[in-house]
Amino acid sequence: MPNRDVIERPALSTAKGKHTREEKLAAFGRLLDIMDDLRQGCPWDMKQTFESLRHLTIEETYELGEAILEGDLEEVGKEVGDLMLHMVFYSLLGSEAGAFDAADVLHGISDKLVTRHPHIYGDVVAATEEQVKSNWEKIKLKEKGEGRRSVLEGVPSGLPSMVKAQRIQEKVRGVGFDWDNAGQVWDKVQEELSELQHEVDQGSDRMADEFGDVMFSLINYARFLNVNPDEALERTNRRFKARFEEMERGIAAAGLDLGDLPLEDMDKHWEAAKEKLGQ
User: Where does residue 126 fall: left (phi above 0), alpha (psi -120 to 50 degrees), or beta otherwise?
Assistant: First the structure.
């Protein structure tokens, strides 16, 4: 492996998070240069492909999401850096394949942002977030032209089911296919719950289908409440985990064995854990 000069970090004239445009450009250029060196000399980096990086990128995305939910901005910054490295790596792989490079990628997204924000870079009026989203989806449909197959074709099939339901609902809302208000959606939730209960009472093989309808309706309702259902469920997961682990500690401290306790005794320790954690 040939020796290379270390690509030094340039001196920064301002505090963290307050760098000049020139400093930001220099930092991005440094990452590009480092990635070029690694691709040419590091055995691991030289071996990577789009396919080999894919699962790592997904993992890094989840790590960023976790840092955001934790409210740890220092960790968020680190995870953003990890993802940015992946984007630079993909751009380098694209360049090697003669398909695209970092300039193509950045100009491509910049052109898209300009085109899809006519209320900023044109004479279209969009005073609300919903108007912006609606314009975005309509512009996307026009961009697809005659070749488009569906409003929903941009929803990746590999998304987690809950996230996919959110995206489907957002997509169809963008072209006006939506409920008028939250009350209508709540009525739909109640209807779906009744249908699920009916299938349960009948011992039907349609229980899973009806359960899915309930979930889809609840996700729709969450959207009208401006609640992200995936984040809400994750917060509940974390809260339950913290309570259960505190309950386990309390039971152990009392010299008891969790597996030997009747449910009513577990409930007492559960309530004590909730009170201790203030959740």
Answer: beta
